[in-house]
Specification:
Blueprint: H1 5-25, H2 32-54, H3 62-84
Helix pairs in contact: 1-2, 1-3, 2-3
């Protein structure tokens, strides 16, 4: 699989925005810029695996990818918070 430089920049941008949005929604302090990118990309992976299994389709385009990834990142952050401690949302 080959990813162009532009494709890699788009993935990083979407991951950063999605991770930042998820941090704001979950009211976390965030994990820093690299952590937010990782959470956003991991959230995109979670969403791309989970949503088709549930029959959920948001749409196409950059904005829908950001929303899709942010929802996945929120789910991921909620799971991390439950596992890490406190058990509170």
């Amino acid at each position: 699989m080959y990813i162009s430089n532009e494709g890699l920049l788009v993935i990083l941008f979407v991951g950063l925005v999605a991770g930042w949005l998820a941090g704001k929604v979950v009211r976390g302090t965030g994990f820093g810029i690299i952590g937010d990118i990782v959470v956003g990309i991991a959230g995109a992976l979670v969403a791309s695996f989970l949503f088709p299994k549930l029959g959920i389709h948001i749409g196409t385009g950059l904005i829908s990818e950001i929303v899709y990834s942010a929802i996945g990142a929120v789910i991921l952050l909620l799971v991390v918070r439950l596992v890490r401690g406190g058990g509170r949302f």
